[in-house]
Design a protein that fits this description.
The complex is a heterotetramer of chains A (273), B (81), C (130) and D (492).
Chain A lengths: L1 H18 L17 H13 L4 H9 L1 H22 L8 E5 L4 E5 L12 E4 L8 H23 L8 H18 L2 H7 L2 H21 L23 H29 L9
Antiparallel strand pairs in A: 1-2, 1-3
Chain B lengths: L2 H20 L3 H21 L3 H25 L7
Helix pairs in contact in B: 1-2, 2-3
Chain D lengths: L3 H22 L4 H26 L2 E4 L10 E4 L1 H20 L1 H7 L4 H20 L3 H20 L6 H30 L4 H10 L4 H18 L7 H7 L3 H26 L2 H7 L3 H20 L4 H21 L3 H31 L11 H4 L1 H15 L5 H16 L2 H26 L21 H33 L1
Antiparallel strand pairs in D: 1-2
Classes of the chains: A mainly alpha (273), B mainly alpha (81), C mainly alpha (130), D mainly alpha (492).
């Protein structure tokens, strides 16, 4: 098996290196790649869309159709993990330890869960006991991560960042919450139903804003045509981009949480890392 | 001339990639894989593509490693090759 | 020796991306453990992103965010000042695709382990055949 | 309303997301929403076809930006035909498999419809787009949704088949992306027409050659052409019935369409056949694909696996036809996209009905099916005859064009392979008919009350299966008009 792999690898490597023979030098400004279309983007972006960050303008406006399908790709991944791993049966038996007396209770297929805290303590090979320092530090840290994530989403036009990066950071703050406490508290705090709805609405916001341009008379993602809906004198395209970024941020945040919860608890949404 | 930084980081990236594949313990692979993503993010910052670097840092080094460790938690750390 | 250096610098990125891709491809085909194959797949995809980003690079050009000096009226924006924004835009999509595939592959690995209790290709083939 | 071209692709996307939303609010609503989305898509696809037939190719600028700057849809005759085919087959399949989804994926059918519609969006987008990178993103959506649906089928082997499919699918899609990168570094633009214009006058450089090899290699891997077909049999036979019925006819045919689009529109007819000398080697590869597909199909014990290998054989037809280099071969290949999609759809509809009643379809389980399921087997026989290439059905006409093209080109090995594989298909299907027709049903073994009573599949599945089988004959009669109105003007 290793021998076939070496042959395939060396063949494709030779083909690729043969292709690089006539490449323009790395980094010279007169290579065809940086002359034809990209000059238009650099020179015209600020005039037309009033967004200082060229990349965000190209991502959401000039080639916004790609990014809509990119958001659909991450939505497919989240949906795929849900469809594949989620099993609604859940574990039947749970173990509790009565702290004062140390007696271990074995609850068979109990729908009702005992309230853990002073009286009882949850016993499970996956369940990780809370670590005080870890819990308090994360409790302080998480709000600031979320504010930073909102900043990244909001400042997509001005600084590097945007909907997708902000959504991932917000999603990882939820994952940090699940790791520092335990998965049970996150699942109770943010129901699976809310995550599912947020994931779908995020991508719908993107596709909706893009689709509203059609009845307004423009082609599919023509933010310019949204002017009558927005307050007069505002930069229509920049606001259209911001709306789309928010949609992507919401969708990605929910999908990162869905994928993490399903992988770590093998779909039972009860106990995990 | 700042190109030496680019060459150095590129060689580090290749060492990280080879290490991530050859090491046996899967958790070590996860950490090396996170390091590989972080070095790639560094490389792209040097090359000026800051948006791509930001995404790779938050996604490659951040969330992929979390999914990786979560999957190892549910499967096994041992790997025979 | 000194004329060799510019030649190396000129094509170093493109040789390196080919080597990275081949490492990823080798791992995907030759490795026995499924997780290692998934890591190889991700290295394979990241190498292509490296190729695209090194296309977009221009020497001594700044990051693709317009300088405040250029936004004053009448100031013409010179294209050589900024790196190519198009390749960065394409690569945002490629990174998202590689994360989506990586996340889904991890979900599959958890599912396979739950059913067969192993992630080694040869053990899996034995358990499949019986 | 000139927004039809984009409506074809966006309607299924938005309804898929709405269905994804309503799964959590009111599960029963998601099926009608998804069905409405596909209906809108079929309606606008037919409108676009009429517009294109009337007034030539349509251009739709996304976001109002002119082509090389923004993304554009350029719908011409070939596009419109394949769009109608894909949306029609997906729509009919959704109606036919409403009950089998409930049977196989009971607890999360609503979410399944979402991912089904996203898969169809991906296919429609791949067919309609005029931008190279947009094509990659949509190939990625199609692949990711098909990985998910393959993994949901068979409890034991589904995930493993899906993981192998991921590895090979990622290699294919990444090779295509690399090919686009090599084209971009040479031309600087991503729009198909723009790239074609720049390549035409630029001298043939090694970069363009490598870009061509990489793009075609990537598409061949996604198309499961013979040496790279390893993932297809497992993926298609372990996936749920409703998915194998939509992926078998469409996924590989849309990739053949993409190959033809790259060959004709992007790289240009004379670049592929004049400057490069690969055409003969590829026709030999297609010959091997046709024969290998047929022989491996002979060795199969399971009906679904057998049909999967027949698909591998059919792809050999289309690739061989497209690479013959003469007009007849290309006409045959394009007509075969349409015919083969309909034939495979009819076959898998029949297999789906059988699976709905009898869980697994090993050849030994098919005893006495004619007695029990006469209508389904009737449709299955018609589709089988069409695959073999019996005149009234459409399969014959596309094979006829391929044969003429091969003989005109002098590729006798390809012509011989065509005939031999038709014979192999005949042997295959008559083996199946012999088991179904002559051998008595196993009385009382698998289900107690099977004393030869007719146990047909539900009516909705039967109507669609019958409709599609009859359409095979209709496509046969109208193949003359299809060739004259659509394919000849397209090759122009």
């Amino acid at each position: 098996m290793k021998f076939i792999a070496l042959i395939v690898v060396s063949l494709t490597g030779a083909l690729l290196l043969y292709g690089t023979a006539e490449f323009p030098d790395w980094g010279d400004p007169s290579s065809p790649a940086s002359l034809h279309v990209s000059n238009y983007y650099i020179e015209k972006t600020y005039e037309e869309t009033h967004a200082p960050n060229f990349v965000t303008a190209v991502v959401t406006d000039y080639r916004g159709f790609d990014t809509m399908f990119e958001t659909a790709v991450i939505f497919c991944a989240g949906l795929g993990c849900f469809l594949l791993l989620r099993d609604f049966t859940g574990k039947k038996e749970h173990f509790y330890r009565h702290i004062p007396t140390g007696v271990i209770l074995h609850v068979k297929n109990g729908k009702k869960k005992l309230t853990t805290g002073k009286e009882f303590e949850y016993m499970d090979k996956d369940w990780v006991p809370h670590d005080l320092i870890n819990k308090t530090v994360c409790r302080i840290l998480i709000p600031f991560i979320q504010i930073y994530a909102l900043y990244v989403v909001a400042h997509g036009d001005y600084s590097p960042g945007g909907g997708f990066q902000g959504g991932v950071i917000f999603g990882s703050s939820l994952i940090l919450f699940a790791i520092s406490y335990d998965l049970q508290t996150l699942v109770e705090r943010i129901k699976e139903k809310i995550l599912g709805i947020l994931a779908a609405t995020g991508v719908l916001i993107y596709a909706g804003i893009a689709a509203i341009c059609m009845p307004m008379g423009g082609n599919f993602i023509d933010y310019g045509k949204l002017a009558p809906l927005l307050p007069a004198g505002s930069h229509v395209r920049a606001l259209g981009m911001l709306g789309v970024e928010i949609g992507v941020g919401i969708a990605v945040m929910a999908i990162m949480a869905i994928i993490y919860i399903n992988i770590v608890s093998e779909g039972r949404h009860d106990e995990g890392l | 001339m700042h190109w030496p930084i680019d060459l150095i980081i590129l060689t580090f990236v290749i060492f990280c990639a080879i290490a991530a594949i050859t090491v046996r313990d899967l958790l070590a692979t996860a950490i090396l894989f996170g390091a590989y993503s972080f070095l790639m993010c560094l490389l792209w910052t040097v090359m000026g593509a800051v948006d791509v670097a930001f995404t790779e840092a938050s996604v490659g080094a951040g969330v992929s490693t979390v999914f990786f460790v979560a999957a190892i938690f549910r499967t096994s750390r041992r790997s025979r090759d | 020796m000194n004329d060799l250096l510019p030649l190396i610098v000129a094509k170093y990125n493109y040789w390196m991306y080919v080597i990275l891709m081949m490492i990823g491809l080798y791992a995907m085909i030759a490795k026995n453990n499924l997780v290692k194959k998934v890591v190889g797949m991700n290295i394979f995809q990241t190498a292509i992103i490296l190729f695209y980003v090194s296309i977009g690079y221009k020497t001594d050009a700044s990051i693709p965010i317009i300088k405040s000096s250029d936004t004053a009226h009448g100031m013409v924006v010179r294209a050589a000042d900024y790196i190519n924004p198009l390749t960065s835009c394409l690569m945002l999509t490629a990174i998202v695709v590689s994360v989506a595939t990586f996340g889904f592959a991890m979900a599959l690995i958890v599912r396979i382990y739950r059913r067969y209790q192993t992630l080694e290709e040869d053990e899996l083939r034995m358990r499949l055949s019986e | 309303m000139d927004n039809y071209p984009v409506l074809i692709v966006v309607a299924p996307l938005i309804t898929a997301l709405l269905a994804g939303l309503f799964v959590w609010i009111e599960e029963r609503l998601s099926y009608p929403i998804v069905l409405a989305g596909l209906a809108v898509s079929v309606f606008s696809a037919i409108n676009v076809l009429i517009q294109v037939l009337a007034s030539g190719s349509i251009q739709y600028k996304m976001g109002g930006w002119p082509p090389p700057i923004g993304i554009e849809y350029r719908i011409d005759l070939l596009n419109a035909m394949v769009l109608c085919l894909v949306s029609g087959v997906a729509f009919l399949n959704l109606i036919a498999s409403c009950r089998s989804v409930k049977q196989e994926i009971s607890d999360r059918a609503g979410s399944y419809y979402t991912i089904y519609n996203l898969f169809v969006t991906g296919l429609l987008g791949v067919t309609a787009t005029g931008d190279l990178f947009n094509l990659y993103v949509l190939i990625e959506i199609t692949s990711l949704t098909s990985y998910a649906q393959v993994a949901m089928g068979d409890r034991d082997r589904g995930p493993l088949a899906s993981l192998n499919y991921i590895f090979i699918g990622v290699i294919g899609a990444s090779f295509y992306l690399l090919g686009v990168g090599y084209l971009y570094i040479q031309t600087g633009s991503l729009n198909m027409a723009d790239v074609a214009a720049i390549i035409k006058d630029a001298p043939a450089s090694s970069t363009v050659l490598t870009a061509f090899i990489l793009c075609i290699l990537g598409i061949w891997i996604k198309m499961a052409l013979f040496p790279m077909h390893v993932w297809l049999p497992n993926a298609y036979s372990y996936s749920p019935v409703v998915f194998s019925r939509v992926v078998a006819p469409l996924m590989t045919k849309v990739m053949v369409y993409v190959m033809i689009r790259l060959m004709i529109t992007v790289f240009g007819y004379d670049y592929v056949f004049k400057t490069l000398h690969l055409a003969d080697a590829v026709v030999w590869l297609a010959t091997i694909a046709v024969l290998a597909g047929g022989i491996m199909a002979l060795a199969q014990k399971n009906l679904k696996k057998m049909l999967a290998y027949i698909i591998v054989c059919e792809i050999g037809y289309m690739v061989g036809g497209a690479w013959l280099g003469n007009r007849l071969g290309m006409t045959g290949a394009i007509l075969h996209i349409l015919n083969d999609a309909l034939m495979t759809f009819a076959l898998f509809l029949g297999v789906g009905n059988i699976i709905y009643k009898i869980r697994n379809v090993d050849l030994t389980d098919l005893k006495g099916l004619f007695g029990k399921m006469p209508w389904t087997m009737g449709g299955f026989v018609l589709a089988a005859l069409s695959i073999i290439g019996v005149p009234p059905t459409c399969g014959f006409f596309s094979k006829w064009y391929l044969l003429l093209g091969a003989l005109e080109k002098g590729a006798y090995h390809f012509a011989a392979a065509l005939i031999i594989s038709s014979l192999i298909c005949a042997v295959l299907f008559f083996k199946v008919f012999e088991i179904c027709f002559f051998e008595p049903a196993l009385h009382g073994l698998e289900n107690p009350h099977s004393h030869g009573a007719i146990e047909e599949a539900p009516v909705s599945m039967l109507i669609i299966s019958g409709l599609v089988s009859l359409s095979l004959i209709a496509a046969g009669f109208y193949s003359g008009t299809i060739v004259n109105r659509i394919i000849i003007p397209f090759l122009g």
